[in-house]
């Protein structure tokens, strides 16, 4: 089994060195159980079934198999990715007009705006009112904003959540007259 | 010769709902054909390319409800390119121009655009019901048109569609005057939901019986929704991700307790298992439970929940329930008629002790004697188990078994599973739908051809040895309507043996088999009433068709009977011979 142990070292993979997470390529397989020969694996990305005594066989991915609707497959994949990424944390500063000190919040704890806003409301004891696509937030003196990668102050809620998480550098809860300038309807 | 006036005959026909019966009636004589077609309200079209909208409207001018299916079944598994076809727009356009009084439209595997939805919403004043299953091509803007313009809308049911969520305020587009909703299902929407708008809508819909929300509807919102809709029969829950504080839990319990009509439960896309006990009071009333998206509910929480569901008739679950869990189902759910067990791990990477095997299947068959439909994804199977299942449950109408690893033999005897499936088709005389898997030789098809007399749909993957296998099926199964085959060694001999057979079938799909371009061309020549479509990997193959070697194997073949000839909307990756 020594030859197999060495092969693993020289193997070309799609993951970072030192990780075991190999993203396998999708390919059509007309017959399963191709046994890779030593010279092959050094040059090819491994994608076929290998039976070794040390590790369970990794199955090649066949297009459209198992026969599960893409909709359902996507949901399972998404959930898997979410749980894989737990623990990394995207911490950003949060300031509130009039508050003596700033707070920090982990954006990766939330899946959507409603959760983030609720957390902010609880953290600073205020409420944001209701979000409307055209008019912004109505019904409150407070307006949640964020600074994006370009340094601009944007209204929270306009772009898709995933885009927001990637571009948000810090949060600021604006209050009163300054808030009105961002398009809030009187 | 009619002994009664036409109106009386029409009145009699009105009580006949089944499409097949009405089709039979229309064949009796010219007079009945005419009365039937002018009184027909509901039409079902299993393949949107078998007929065109003009002929539909010509024959059934008074139609109110139309069901259309587009892409072939294997499109669900990414085997059909997105641009293949199945566009609904020409249908809506034609119906609108002919001023048909359309009230209901049900689509499956079709391409629907926002323009189509807008046109639909503006063209039919009495439009009541839109059901979209596995469709794509539209966004929430299209939904906004439906909400805003369909004044008598009763049903908006979106099942497992790929919808581009623009996070627009489509729920706000329902006017305040819209109070007729009976069914609203937007579980497949991925984006935010305007909770206030949803609550107002539900509050002003006293007839709402079915409500299925998406992930973006959290626990407290759900509590408020249920409180203003205690008449709900069918509920799809959103997300419950955090453990609720005692006060929230109490409010939820109170709301649930009022929903005494609740019979169907689904959703739970994100669940903290400790929220489940709030639902215990209504478990005994449930007849349908779909937990197949609830990966977080496992083990004891799941089993305890199901144990209370003594009246359950339909259960959709993940294989994380395990054989032990299925044994509990078998002892608790004696009324079970339909079971679907989906795989929770698609790549076979995890060493999944909890996944299901033949043990669970046998337990279910022994405990649930009313079972007639099953979809079962599992790691392994044996002939002995299948033979036992066949003995326990001879009433199967649908039997779909998917062993996750292709070509896997009986894991105890290492033999093929021919005998096991043979037992199923022999015992289940009413079997209409069958999917086979595992290691299978031509013999299983001999059995299917011999015994599966009522079989209408057969799905084959990685099975068989020679053309003879496919021939057994084509020759034997007289009622076969849909045959779909992938990665099996069937070639031209089988394809061409009985061309007339395809006139009795809706469609045939063959991918990664041994049929060649030459064979397909010959078929197209011998059967001009068939559309023989070759679906290629990429566009260039389509153009070079004439220069290609006729001995070259065809990637994907899809053929179907049609009365309107070659379709005009095929993309370049599709060659119609």
UniProtKB/TrEMBL annotation, chain B:
Pfam families: F-box_5 (PF18511), LRR_6 (PF13516), Transp_inhibit (PF18791). Residues 4-42 form the COI1 F-box domain. Keywords: Auxin signaling pathway, Developmental protein, Nucleus, Ubl conjugation pathway. One of its GO terms (molecular function) is auxin binding. It is found in: Nucleus. It comes from the Eukaryota. Gene3D superfamilies: 1.20.1280.50, Ribonuclease Inhibitor. Residues 61-107 form the Transport inhibitor response domain. One of its GO terms (cellular component) is nucleus. PANTHER family: F-BOX/TPR REPEAT PROTEIN POF3, PROTEIN AUXIN SIGNALING F-BOX 3. This is F-box domain-containing protein. It comes from Eutrema salsugineum. The lineage of its organism: Eukaryota, Viridiplantae, Streptophyta, Embryophyta, Tracheophyta.
